[in-house]
Predict the 3D structure of the following.
Amino acid sequence: ENFKPAQVLDSLKVPDNHLAVNRKLHFSIAKDDDNVHFEIDSLTGDLYLSKELDYETDSHFLLQVIIKDYNNPTQNSTVFLSIDVEDKNDHSPYFQDDFVVIGIEENVPLGTLVHTFDAKDGDGSFLNSKIEYSLEVSNMSENPFRIHPLYGSLTTASPLDREITRSVILTVFAEDQAINLTERRLDSVAVKIVILDINDNSPSFMSSSLSYVVEDVEVGFLVHHIIAKDPDEGRNGQVTYHILSGNENKAFVLDKITGLLTTAQLLDHEVQERYSLTVMALDDGSPALSATQVLTIVVLDVNDETPVFLKQFYETAVHENRDPGEFVIKVEAVDLDAGLNSLLQYEILPGAGYEKFKMNSDSGELVTAASLDRETQEVFRIKGRPSRSSTAQLYLTVLDENDHSPLFVKTQYQISVTEDLEEGSAILDLSASDEDDGLNGEVMYSLIDDTYGAFAIDSVTGSVVTTKALDRETKSQYTFRAVASDCSTHFPRSTTVSVLVHIDDVNDNDPVFLQSPIRAFVPAETAVNETVATVRAEDGDLGSNGAIVFNLMVAESVFQIDVKTGDIILREPLSSKDFSTQLLVMASDQGISPRTATAVVIIFTEEQEEAISFSHSLYEASVPENSAAGGH
């Protein structure tokens, strides 16, 4: 196709056997054929290229050549000429875009398809238009991408990290595969691959975790500038600051945007020397990532030129009953002055109990000068000072030794209770005290000796309660011992006290006849005022509750009963020899609410001895349920 115009392509020749002397021929191309690209010499038959060929436009031509014989018109002929155009690699591959920008997230896995390039080549033959792809990277030592040479698919070849490489500039080449290497043509396109951020980085603190501030700064003073960086982009890298813990007393304020930490109240080195704030840096990604840092803020002491105790208030404890010379505490003061003016001497200021202690004037060590007794004095307040200086106060607690036993209020307890108390009733509250402190002075109660299951004691309150119903008629008195013990874990001490419980009677027993019915034979000639029978009854109760009197329930003229002895006395002569009667006798105790019982006394003469019988052979009665006891 790159054959130049005006050159002879070919020449049409007539076979020799058709040639004649002085034969005159005329060559021409049929008008219907393409005569734009080709011309023929009408005399010689030479075929010329009149216009450049393009394989991609026309790769084949079929020309009809007419040969006229002027000498012999009957010898005119037509020749068809087939012309194949051979492809020449005259087209370069080309991309549709001059510059390609692609975005891809940094966390995609290896082998992820990034983009597919599709270059075109105008050549017609296979190898001249077959394209192979390659790439070069311009801003990195290692190429994190690869391209498929045939398909043009660009994929990831190594992990991406936007925080290391934000973008990659590639040059993608498309080269045809002409057989002659020197004739191969190529095109290229610039590609910018932008690595898109994901929130894969937590903030990291850049500022120091230690800061110092003097105690006399004003409220609002800048203490520290907290700085954290997040290499992520946009909201993923926007950091805010927060205090998680350590600022419970609201001593500091943290600006969540700037990270400026300022004082919110006055600081006091003697109250708190340092603060440990747990600070969080939080990005604005979704989900948000965070980092924490423990920021230590040291409050520096402001010391003028006078000695100052490291503490204004000392507190310690020492055991009682120890020999003199027991170490109590060491106090310490500092003086920013130099030389002799910084040498300190310590002393105790006069005060209550100060004579029981000695101070080492050089070291500031305090020891006892006498044995201490917590029960006499538990707390000492001692003031000391270095020479020519301010004072500090020592709060000294004498620690308890278990040197006291619990003591009951009484040496013996006596109590009377009625026998009708309900089970669980409190009858006595024991109380014991122990002058010791803590567990040494905490008292627990218990019972020893057998209470026959009738009593128990609350181990904490000392309350004695009944554990079953009492019955004076069974047991009228209980004697047992109660123990008060302290709760010391080493050699507990205890005290025992005797408890005597009297059971008072209540009228809870009915009189009981020793015999019922009573049959008495009375001769008909028995004299008046003669005792004909005696009824006997007992009552287990005590005193008036158990004192019994007798009465006839039905008024009787023939007989009467002695209310105290129960003797039945004949008051009138018997009316006949076959006399018989039944007396209903009631026995009553003399309690406030008397309890009673009845008995039948059958009196008969000798002739009626065998005539006594029931009036009916069967008695029937109905009794409602829930009837009260003693109902008739």
Q: What stands out?
A: The radius of gyration is 66 Å.
